[in-house]
Predict the structure.
Amino acid sequence: MYLLIKRSWLYWINERKKSKILWKKQNRLEDAATAQEEVLQQLEQSRHSNQEMIEQARQSAEKFREEEITKAKAEAEAFLDKAQKQINQQRETAIEEIRSQFADLAITAAEKVIERSLDRDDHQELIDQVISGHHPNTH
């Protein structure tokens, strides 16, 4: 009987040890599963964070591109405006030079025709009358 009790006792101790070992293994498996889940969550968060960074970078690049296009258009328009002003100024200068040369030529021609010298004011009055279609003698 003693032997039977001893065997029972040893069996119970072995079973208890096995139970503890299984329990520890179960806890380790659960801990590993929890750790794996945490790693997977962190990985998903990292993916999400990376996607957000990529989207922010894309938006920043798009904004920069649009700003550069706007800036380039403004510079081009300013350049065209400046060029147009220069063209207009050069045209006005050329017209004034031609008028001046024409006036001098007309005075010289008129002096030869009427054989007298006209001053600039007389000449301008004569030109204005010719341009407007009135003859000096038909006031």
